[in-house]
Amino acid sequence: MSNAAALRDELQRIVGESGILPDAQIANYTIDGLTPKAVVLPASVWEIQDVLRFAAAQHLSVIPAGSGSKLQSGNSPEKVDIVLAMTHINEVVEYEPADLTVTVEAGIQLTALQEKLADNGQFLPLNPPYASRCTLGGIVAANASGYLRLRYGTARNLVLGLRVVHASGTVVKSGGKVVKNVAGYDVNKLYIGSFGTLGILTEMTLKLSPIPARQALLTAQFQDMQAAAKTGLSIVGSQTLPDFVNLLVNSEHAGPTLVAGFGGDAETVTWQLEQARRIMELNGAIGVKEVEGESFQKLNDAIRAFAESENESRTVIVQVNLKRTDIAEFAENVLTNNAEMLALLGSGVLYLKMEQVEGLAETLATLRERVVAAHGSLIIESAPPELKQQLDVWGPVAPRARNLMQQLKARFDERNLLNPGRFVSGI
C-alpha cells in the first residue's frame, strides 16, 4: 500500500466502517514509539482470515492485540503495519456450570467473564495484572496467570481447547471441551505463551473452579529477608495448602511483609489460619494480622496490580524466575538498587519494579548474569523503548531451543507476518 489512507480503505472493504478504528484513536495502539498504519477490529473469524490473507499479499505485518495491556511487552517490533484488535469478538460461546467448563471468544475481558461465572458460584482462577481490562486472548497468548498459580496453576493448566487462525488464514482447533482429553499431541501448549507469533487466538475452552466459601489471609512483617522467606517457604511446604504465599518489599513498609492467603470452607480456613499464624510467630514475625472481607479484596487487588506499569516512560517491570530457595539471597542483593519487589514464594517467581535511570541497562545485565548462573531467567516485562534498544528483554536462549522455535515460526508463519521481532531471539 502506498499510504495509510489507501490501506485503511482496503481494510474497510473487508471489515466495514465499524471495523476500522478512527484515526484519532490509533495512537492508543502505539508500540515502542511505532504507530500502526491501521487498527482493525474484526467481528468474526472470517474477517480475521481475510485480513491475514490481505496482509500476506501486501507484505504487511500484523500485531494481535486485545485491550492493549501487553503492547509494551516483548522486544520492539520490526515494523507495525496492522494491529488486529480482538475486542469485538467477545462472547461466551458455551457455558456448562455442571462440567466446570466455559468456552469464550478471545476478546472477552476477564472481569466480564468473572461476573457471569459468579452467578453460578464459580470463577476462572487466573488473576494477572491489568485485571480490570485484560482479555482472555491476551492472557492465554502471554501465559499470564497471577499469584493464584500456586494452587490452581497457570493458563497452561486451565486451557482445555483452542481455536486459532494461522497467518495463512487456515483455522485450526486443538484440545477439546472436557477436562480429561488425552488423545493425541497436546498442541494447546504450543500456542499458550507464544505471544501471538504462531497464530491469532479466537476461542478457548477453560477449566473453572468453585468460589471458596471463605477467603482470608495473614500478613506479618519481619526484620530481615532471610527470616521472611524461610517462613514463607515453611508455609508453602506445610499441610495448610495455601492459595498463595507472597513476599512484598516496597516503600510503604519498614521491612519485608509476608502475605499468605487461604480459601475453602469456613472450618478449614480457620484451621489453616491458625497453623500459618503459629509458623509465622515461631519464626519471629511482627504484628501478625488476619484480613478478610473488603480489606482482603483491597489487598488482593493491590498485590495483583504490583506488576502493572503506571508510567511506561519511566517504570521498568522485571520478572525473575528462580529456585524457591534462591529468592531470599537474590532479593537482598537486588534491593540495594532501590527496587520494589513482590516474590511468589510458592512458584519461584519474583517481580521487580524499578525506575528508568542512567545505567539501568548495565544493572539489569549484571542481574541477568547472576540469575542465569543460578539456572534461572530474567525477563523485562515492561520498559521504555530506549532500554529495549540496549538489551534483549527475553534474555539468552540455548541454541537448540532457539533453532526449534525458529523452525516452528517458519512452519506456522512462513512470511513472518505475526508480531515480527517481538518474541524470544527476535522471532
Plain-language structure description:
- This protein has four domains: 4-85, Uridine Diphospho-n-acetylenolpyruvylglucosamine Reductase, domain 2 (2-Layer Sandwich); 92-210, Uridine Diphospho-n-acetylenolpyruvylglucosamine Reductase, domain 3, CATH 3.30.465.10; 214-304, Alpha-Beta Plaits, CATH 3.30.70.600; 308-390, Alpha-Beta Plaits, CATH 3.30.70.
- The protein is 31% helix and 23% strand.
- The two termini are 24 Å apart.
- Helix 8 packs antiparallel against helix 11 (327-334).
- Strand 4 and strand 5 form a beta hairpin.
- The strands form four sheets. An eight-stranded antiparallel beta sheet has the order 14-11-13-12-16-17-15-18, with helices on both faces. Strands 4-5-9-7-8 form a five-stranded antiparallel beta sheet. It has a three-stranded parallel beta sheet with strand order 1-3-2.
- It is α+β, with helices and mostly antiparallel strands.
- The radius of gyration is 22 Å and the shape is globular.
- The chain is built from 14 helices and 18 strands.
Number of domains: 4
- Could you report the average pLDDT, rounded to the nearest whole number? 92
Rounded to an integer in angstroms, the radius of gyration calculated over CA atoms is 22 Å
Task: Kindly report the CATH topology of the largest domain.
Answer: Uridine Diphospho-n-acetylenolpyruvylglucosamine Reductase, domain 3
Helix content: 25-40%
* Strand percent estimate: 15-25%
Biggest β-sheet description: 8 strands, antiparallel
Low-confidence stretches: none
Number of strands: 18
Shape: globular
Walk across the major sheet and give the strand order: 14-11-13-12-16-17-15-18
N-to-C CA distance: 24 Å
Number of helices: 14
CATH class label of the largest domain: Alpha Beta
Quaternary structure annotation: single chain
Structural class: alpha+beta
CATH architecture label name of the largest domain: 2-Layer Sandwich
